[in-house]
């Protein structure tokens, strides 16, 4: 019971931190995270043909029965920062552990970019992305449904990945261990650069 209360408290704390940001915001240098994604052969083409992308350099995720995730990042269009994005996720179901990961979301066109930057955007529970450096697969995730292909990043296999509903999502593990069979989607907020 104590563990359950601790997990619920941690999730509520993450939600409070997510809602607490106010005031002026200054863009940060995320070039090291972007360079890590650019080093993946599967991800490189998306940098060349996307309208824009969102980068979240560190998302913390944890849970035991009840879980959550939180992270913040920046949205880019034409290579320039256009705003701040925050991710929050609450999940329920069988899950135990914690992990940290980076995430990048590519927008194929202006429509997809506009959909993400409306202020409130959410992926449903079927949208997912798996670590491209530590895992043995790459999976593209999108709103509504997921489409994907699998191959290890160093396997030598060529994988034809594409956008689904105008978006493609990739994650890269930073650390931790987590087993999850939970439901729930990532929800994003967007604050334009002023």
Would you mind describing this structure in some detail?
By secondary structure, this protein is an alpha+beta fold. It has one domain. The protein has helices at residues 2-20, 31-38, 44-49, 110-116; strands at residues 52-77, 80-107, 120-122, 138-141, 146-149, 167-183, 187-192. The strands form two sheets. Strands 1, 2, 3, 6 and 7 form a five-stranded antiparallel beta sheet that branches. Strands 4-5 form a two-stranded antiparallel ribbon. The longest helix is centred in the N-terminal third of the chain and has 19 residues, at 2-20. It is globular and about 40 Å long.
Shape estimate: globular
Would you tell me the overall average pLDDT? 72
Main sheet makeup: 5 strands, antiparallel
- The gyration radius over C-alpha positions equals 16 Å
Number of strands: 7
Low-confidence stretches: 3-22, 134-160, 179-184
* Helix-residue proportion: 10-25%
Distance between the termini: 46 Å
Structural class: alpha+beta
Secondary-structure element pattern, one letter each: HHHEEHEEEEE
Residues in β-strands, percent:
over 45%
Question: Treating each run of at least 4 consecutive H or I residues as one helix, how many helices?
Answer: 4
Tally of domains: 1
């Amino acid at each position: 019971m104590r563990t359950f209360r601790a997990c619920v408290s941690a999730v509520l704390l993450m939600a409070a931190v997510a809602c607490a940001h106010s005031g002026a915001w200054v863009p940060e240098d995320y070039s090291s995270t972007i360079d890590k994604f650019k080093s993946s052969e599967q991800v490189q083409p998306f940098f060349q043909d996307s309208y824009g992308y969102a980068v979240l350099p560190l998302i913390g995720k944890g849970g035991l029965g009840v879980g959550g995730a939180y992270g913040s990042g920046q949205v880019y269009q034409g290579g320039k920062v256009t705003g701040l994005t925050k991710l929050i996720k609450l999940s329920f179901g069988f899950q135990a552990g914690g992990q940290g990961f980076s995430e990048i979301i590519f927008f194929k066109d202006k429509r997809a970019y506009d959909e993400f930057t409306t202020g409130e955007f959410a992926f449903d529970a079927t949208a997912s992305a798996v670590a491209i450096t530590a895992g043995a697969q790459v999976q593209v995730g999108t709103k509504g449904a997921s489409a994907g292909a699998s191959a290890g990043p160093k396997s030598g296999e060529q994988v034809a990945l594409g956008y689904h509903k105008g978006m493609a999502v990739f994650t890269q593990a930073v650390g931790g261990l987590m087993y999850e069979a939970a439901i729930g989607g990532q929800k994003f907020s967007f604050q334009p650069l002023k």
